Amino acid sequence: MSRPLTIRKPTTTEMRQLYARLEAHLNPWQRRRVEAIILYATGMIAVEIAHALEVHPNTIYADLHAFAQHGVRAIDQLGSPGAPVRLNEAQQIEILRLAAVPPYE
């Protein structure tokens, strides 16, 4: 069951800005965020948007909450990029080297 959303829909001016942003060069996560907001404005719920964009519903909730907090500026604000890197450069190089070794060796 999807969570109810109390996030406002974009205004007409914001919709114009969102469509204009689609014409510009965007990173994949920026394009997804713009598309999620536009689909939300059409009346789709987060779970439907997630299915249409092939992402997890929590990603859509995060996108919509960012829009609620920052408006259209949310498109330019990257959320948490994930866990911090725990491998140093030498370890990464060694992993890549081992991955290139055939299994029979």
Describe the structure.
With 105 residues, the chain is mainly alpha-helical. It has one domain. 57% of the residues lie in helices and 0% in strands. It is built from five helices and no strands. Helix 1 runs antiparallel to helix 2, helix 2 packs across helix 4 and helix 3 packs across helix 4. The termini are far apart. The model has no long low-confidence stretch (mean pLDDT 89).
**What's the order of the H and E elements?**
HHHHH
Radius of gyration: 19 Å
Q: Structural class of the secondary elements?
A: mainly alpha
Number of E-state strands? 0
Helix content: 55-70%
- Domain module count: 1
Poorly predicted runs = none
> Beta-sheet strand percentage?
under 5%
Number of helices: 5
How far apart, in Å, are the first and last alpha carbons? Answer: 50 Å
Main sheet record:
none
- Mean pLDDT figure: 89
Which word captures the global form?
elongated
Brief overview:
It is built from 5 helices and no strands. It has 105 residues and is mainly alpha-helical. It has one domain.
List the helices and strands and how they pair.
Layout: H1 12-23, H2 28-41, H3 46-53, H4 57-70, H5 89-100
Helix pairs in contact: 1-2, 2-3, 2-4, 3-4
Features:
single chain; 105 residues; mainly alpha; elongated
